[in-house]
Hints:
Elements: E1 4-5, H1 8-28, E2 35-41, H2 45-61, E3 64-70, H3 76-88, E4 94-97, H4 107-111, H5 125-132, H6 141-152, E5 161-165, H7 172-180, E6 189-193, H8 199-207, E7 211-214, E8 232-235, E9 239-242, E10 250-253, H9 258-261, E11 267-268, H10 275-294
Parallel strand pairs: 1-11, 2-3, 2-4, 5-6, 5-7, 7-8, 8-11
Antiparallel strand pairs: 9-10
The structure holds nicotinamide-adenine-dinucleotide.
Nicotinamide-adenine-dinucleotide binds next to helix 10.
Amino acid sequence: MKAKILDGKKTAQDIRNEIKAEVDQLRSRGLRPPHLVAILVGDNPASHTYVRGKMRACAEVGFDSTNKHLPASTTEQELLGWVKTYNEDPLVDGILVQMPLPEHIVPQNITKTIVPHKDADGFHPLNVGLMTLNFPGILSATPAGIMELIDRYEIPTKGKHVVIAGRSRIVGRPISILMSRGGQPGEATVTICHRYTPPELLKQMCLQADIVIVAVGKPGLITADMIKEDAVVIDVGINRIEAPEKKSGYRLVGDVDFDAVAEKASYITPVPGGVGPMTVAMLLSNTLHSYKRSHG
Ligand code: NAD
């Protein structure tokens, strides 16, 4: 394989170690640790797995954590009630509501109700606005994780062409802002492709890209013939595909044809073990940031 691996698993471990050292210091000064609350509505198995992973990460760094599991029948008003309770609780520093929510709940109504300084996912419109204008604030967790990975591997972005596939509120759109705004990483020329970008144009754009970031949710969307020699490829996609040989019956793959693209790219993120663990590390980092803010 030609490409070097952008090892999100190891980098996230480094970040968790750094956070744990800070938490140990807080405890040694007699202060309480940061506290993250995850609210999960319903019984989506993947969501349960994600929340369990987040709770494990909290335990590892010494955070307090609460896993608030509500039934799928929870109304929007009831969920808003829980969010408001945690908003007002001075012993809670970070709140996240695991997506997707049941169809009768409008996710934007929940996102905008979390007080911006406890918004562990960084989805609140105020935080997205601050990020857009390059003011300090909480960054959307997955895009922040991608930026951190690129930064720690010292991949240059200034003046580079970054092509992003996907324009979601939680990945594609915010990463396009972070990549194009001032700072390192940043200062890039950015192209966003989405569901209405004709396949041939997506290919043309990707072939011009120094860095390709894919957040679509379609296995095999990005093939080797779409990638320029020595490009950097960041695969955000997480897809379950059938794998009868596995005990679980499935395995996780990204949106990139990994084996073939890895023969052309200079760097590539694996799935799993790339962007996913970085997202969780950034959730912890955002919660620590909120804690520090409220403790002066
Ligand atoms: P989404 O599911 O909300 O939307 C998908 C996006 O892809 C849309 O903007 C759509 O316009 C675009 N799209 C659809 N078909 C396309 C095509 N043929 N070419 C180009 N763009 C196309 O997006 P999301 O919530 O950002 O999730 C995308 C993927 O990333 C999913 O697999 C999800 O599981 C994964 N994800 C991973 C992490 C992580 O931490 N690794 C975090 C969030 C999402």
